[in-house]
TrEMBL record:
UniProt xrefs under SMART domains: PlsC
Protein name: Phospholipid/glycerol acyltransferase domain-containing protein
Signal peptide span: none
Domain Phospholipid/glycerol acyltransferase, chain residue ranges per copy: 43-155
InterPro entries found in the cross-reference section: Plipid/glycerol_acylTrfase
Domain of life: Bacteria
Length: 398
């Protein structure tokens, strides 16, 4: 199959029926509005993005098979590539200009496909919609086809990106047609972007304040250290540790519990009530922090390092330890070999799933896979971006 030839509806329904049985064991779906009913393709679906199931959540309630725009590194897995190609998925290199993606989206329009896009560029970590990539508005202007926005509510509480396993609970979906094709011609790109931002914005915990739903799991806080790596009590980095519903600092023993409603509870001082509030403070703290060479040298993790040239499958280059200084990341192998990459050469830095850090140098894809399941790829990308920004300021002032 391909973009031109979509999967038959009976194949789509057969596959989704099996998936629906699994999802309904852990999730209760409430569709509050569905403007895709009786809407004929081609049209564009845009949605907020919170977990791996999002494309399936959406396609469960859309009659046509959807050609989703998906991260290009996924296509470098041979088995996954076959599945994605069968569905007509369109590869996109995250956070890099990619004209081939535009050409393939236009091809999908020409063949009357429903096109699916997550304009945040990746799954958010805390239940709050990330900024919408501006080029999405340009694409909408170019396509001139109906646009349906989807809000997925409860997806973060059901399966947060940092978490392990699903939490049983309710997900609400709203399919809202925001434009017909003829509406778009008179709109500016800026207006389109503003409307997309408004239509897709969702704050999970603000929504939860009104709903009060419970999301059941025996390990509801498990792996929260993948997102929250700074202790608000002693301010150390990398000492947080989760266990079932408990989240504790190994350095000072500060402790909180995460409830089934998604809020923190503590017998100690309660600095924050939600992971989002903690993450926002953590970002502000990092921005104000002066990271010395000695401090950075203490931050290290065991990793596997991969490389892919010319869009071929990834190959393991070495296994070792990752460290960083104020200008570079360094990867050291047990055999004494090493590789270093300057921040200014690293492009398209992003996280795949929760434990793989991808970046490009020129057109070569490199992947750092953290082998410790508690390791925070999110922490590493925040540190790299923080140090990269500091370096840029230093160069501008010199």
């Amino acid at each position: 199959m391909s973009i031109e030839k979509k999967p038959s509806k009976w194949v789509k329904h057969l596959l989704l029926s099996a998936i629906r049985l699994h999802l309904h064991r852990i999730t209760t779906f409430h569709v509050t509005q569905n403007d895709t009913k009786d809407l004929k393709p081609p049209y564009l679906i845009v949605s907020n993005h919170v977990n791996n199931w999002d494309p399936l959540y959406i396609n469960l309630f859309v009659d046509e098979p959807i050609a989703f725009v998906a991260g290009e590194p996924l296509f470098r897995n041979p088995l996954l590539k076959k599945i994605l190609n069968y569905t007509g998925a369109i590869p996109k290199t995250k956070f890099k200009n990619d004209t081939s993606t535009i050409r393939n989206v236009l091809k999908a329009k020409q063949h009357n496909r429903v096109i699916g896009l997550f304009p945040e560029g990746g799954r958010n970590w805390d239940g709050v919609t990330e900024p919408i990539i501006y080029s999405t508005a340009k694409l909408v202007k170019l396509l001139k086809i109906p646009v349906v926005s989807v809000q997925i509510k409860g997806g973060y509480l059901t399966h947060p990106r940092w978490g392990d396993g699903d939490r049983k609970g309710i997900i609400e979906l709203t399919f809202n047609k925001i434009w017909d094709g003829e509406d778009i011609a008179d709109l500016t790109v800026s207006t389109i972007h503003d409307q997309l931002t408004k239509s897709l914005h969702h704050d999970e915990m603000n929504w939860q304040k009104k709903k009060g739903y419970s999301y059941h799991s025996k390990r509801i806080a498990h792996y929260l250290e993948r997102l929250l790596f700074t202790c608000p009590s002693c301010h150390t980095i990398g000492n947080m540790r989760s266990d079932h519903d408990t989240f504790q600092c190994d350095n000072c023993n500060y402790q909180v519990q995460l409830t089934e409603q998604g809020y923190f509870h503590s017998e100690d001082a309660l600095y924050f009530t939600t992971p989002f509030e903690w993450k926002e403070w953590q970002q502000q703290h990092l921005d104000q922090l002066s990271l010395t060479t000695d401090t950075l040298s203490e931050i290290q993790e065991q990793i596997e390092f991969y490389q892919s040239i010319d869009q071929k499958p990834l190959k393991k280059v070495m296994k070792g330890t990752i460290r960083l200084d104020n200008e570079q990341i360094h990867i050291y192998s047990a055999d004494g070999s090493s590789k270093s990459f300057s921040f200014e050469d690293m492009e398209g830095i992003n996280i795949l799933f929760h434990h793989k850090l991808d970046f490009f140098v020129n057109d070569t894809l490199f992947r750092i896979t953290f082998t410790n399941p508690r390791a925070s790829a999110y922490m590493w990308i925040q540190l790299i971006q923080h140090l990269k920004a500091k370096l840029a300021i230093k160069e501008q002032s010199s």
